[in-house]
Predict the 3D structure of the following.
Amino acid sequence: MNHRIKAREFLKDKEHANWHDKALWFVREKRDAAAKSLKEWEDLREAAQKIKEHTLKHLGYYLDEFEKNASEKGIKVHFAKDAKEHNEIVYKILSKHKVKRVVKSKSMLTEECGLNPYLKERGIEVIDTDLGERIVQLREEPPSHIVLPAIHLKREQIGKLFEEKLHTEKGNFDPVYLTNAARRDLREKFLTSQAAITGVNFAVSESGSIVVCTNEGNADLGTSLAKVHIACMGMEKIVPKLAHLGIFTRLLARSATGQAITTYTTHFSSPPEGKELHVIVVDNGRSEIIKNKKHEKILSCIRCGACMNTCPIYRRSGGHSYSYTIPGPIGSALANARDLKNQADLSFASTLCGSCSSVCPVKIDLHHQLLAYRKEYVKKFAPLSKKIPYKIAFFILKNEFVLKTLSKTGNLFYPLLEKIPLWGEGRKIPKPAKKSFKEIYREKYEQK
Amino acid sequence: MNKSSFLKNLNGKTPPDLNLPSFKRSVFEDKTKAFAKNLKKAGGEAIIISQENEIENEIKKLFPNAKKIASIYEYEIASVNPNLIKDPKELKDIEIAIVKGEFAVAENGAVFINEEKNRHRAVYSICKHLIIITDKNKIVNTMEEAYEKIDPKTLKYALFISGPSKTADIEQTLVIGAHGAKSTTVFLV
Amino acid sequence: MKTIGLFIPCYIDKIYPKVAEATLLLLKKLGFSIKYPLSQTCCGQPFANSGFEEETRSFAKHFVNVFKEYDYIVAPSASCVAMVKKHYQEYLPPSKELFKVQNSIYEICEFLYDVVKLKEIDATFPHRVGFHQSCHGLRELEIGTSSELAKPIFSKARYLLSLVKGIEIVELERADECCGFGGTFSVNEPEISIKMGRDRIADHLRAKAEYIVGYDSSCLMHMEGIIKHDNLNIKTLHIVEILAGTANES
């Protein structure tokens, strides 16, 4: 219900909805061009799927190795059972260093844990430095896409926001101008922050390294100027060998934006002299998802966002119509994994077209995952009110006599029925034929 | 939570070898050309020079008005050696940083930078213009080949840089120069 | 001689019997012996897609029972065939009959391309048509290559369509975007469903197609509903009607 209502709102601004759809389709096209330029693209996807499958099956081993190797090189590794513990650990480190201001680069995990409001309540200012994230932070709203956080906004909206918050020129909505204004504003923040928080794109077990991929350089600048770098990662981000990054770095940016690689692919395997590097490994329900063999593979996600760009429903409803930190197909799957009872509408917010599964670089069968969650929802939680229409439909379709009668009635009363919006505003119900094929066959073709 | 409690519910047994099926990777007939093309696509510029001493002249040509040039290597035009500075924030007004890469990657215009002697990691992202010098004969085809050259045991801090910093966060319009360098020039020697 | 059991989905039986007739006539013309078991019912797909396992199982059991005796099962509906071929094993225990049914069921274009190996068609349709590639046929049955994949693009259905004399297949902006029907999705989220349908139709209109041709009547039914409401100058047509040469009789 939730998704439908929010989607309906989104569609009311027709022009904006069309623009949103086109903008994201454009990103999908860029991805297509990049993928098809490599003969080995489908082989890369296959390899990535196998690496993730193997890793998830032996996650305990690889996390243990990661901790050993990272610690040896001077990284402090922490383990957080849930969001609360994660936030507490971050706060402990920051307060130990008397941090008042921290810069943060993109991390969906910190969104998941609600880190920003947690720190704000305790008097620590968090500045999101990724331009898209900074924009939504200033607007006090969540990101609508995991890679393109402000894709739902037009330049006029961003321009007016910057006029107010950054005192930019009135009426200047030029993206170059606005980006430069943000660069200047955030430079000052980088230079006056005592700590930097980043996400983790990949954590390599064999070398004890974490890898951060960005285009803007905000993670690099932030971490290199601060005394403390805290990297927050979901435990499924582990990759066994450094060599495996050869596969993932070829898939990630191409799937996300159509670029061959992000500007920066930075491997942090030790803190700089005199500084601290902390990695917080978070569970927050992931170990429960792993227990379910059917759904385990949704943890293979490398957060490229390709599924969102290709999803015809996401493009026409926007990220904010999904009631979970991550929107689109993968978000719907993760939401259902965590809270099937209350998030089921997300698995139904799909035509099961399968486009998402075809673009996923690690070959998660997303549309089959959503279908499986539907089954589980009906079995465990669906109220009678949701089941009754199907029980009725079952009765009708099982009994030819009933179906035939309904069909004939539909045909007879069609001139009246077609005027009622029984199938939504904007679409007429079909007219049942005067004679069904069963009747025609009996009359014309059946051999007596 | 301590490590053993955290890992308790996960499979900690030593895994069998992961054997990935082999497949053919892209190979470029002219790696230098491919590298230059892909670097351009990423917003950067590749300049081929025959001798290292040509570099300073080339930089003067590209940035005639630049005064604050940082490098840990001994270049005449360098005005500051970052290794002699205590606080990386002092580098904030640096216009050009000259760094050295270990090898380049043809498929995406990236250069692998692993300067163990460099004291301040900020050098790579705080400067306005980044200049990377790397060996013309050390170009690999793909990222798989690239990672074969990196030793996991000794890896401390290293990065691939492909072109200048950029963003398309405003209406998907590409803007070169976000928080990091506004331009990246790679000299292939 | 091999016999074909004709499988006609419920909505084609009651709403688009011409599609069923075209399928029957085309297969007859090709020399097959065809039976249409009258006791067949819905294959259960709408229930499966909404998560109703028990109900689906009931339909699946009946389906296997009705069709187990045929050498081939052919249907003018990719989504229903995909349901049987790719998903029935999730609802029924393994059995000889289930195995046989799953391995002998074909969508009509699949059948014509893979089994009959059709290289020419005696049919004329001198019109501009837009080819709608329904999702299940594309991504479940692989009747064609979906546009996301880095593989050479080929479609069995489009190939068959190109054999028809006088036909002109127009190029669309989005070759295989979903039309928005999605079964119960069209009822659960009608606004998005209709928006998606409108966008698909607009693509065909911009390409100046006279007909939207596809291999799934469910998609066509949904788009037709929008066309009728908006009074648009375009028609929908199932590919089998063109291939059978009965399209002009509409």
User: Anything to note?
Assistant: Chain A is about 55% helix and 10% strand. Strands of chain A lie at 76-80, 101-104, 125-128, 195-198, 202-204, 209-214, 228-234, 238-239, 264-268, 276-282. Residues 386-445 of chain A form one domain.
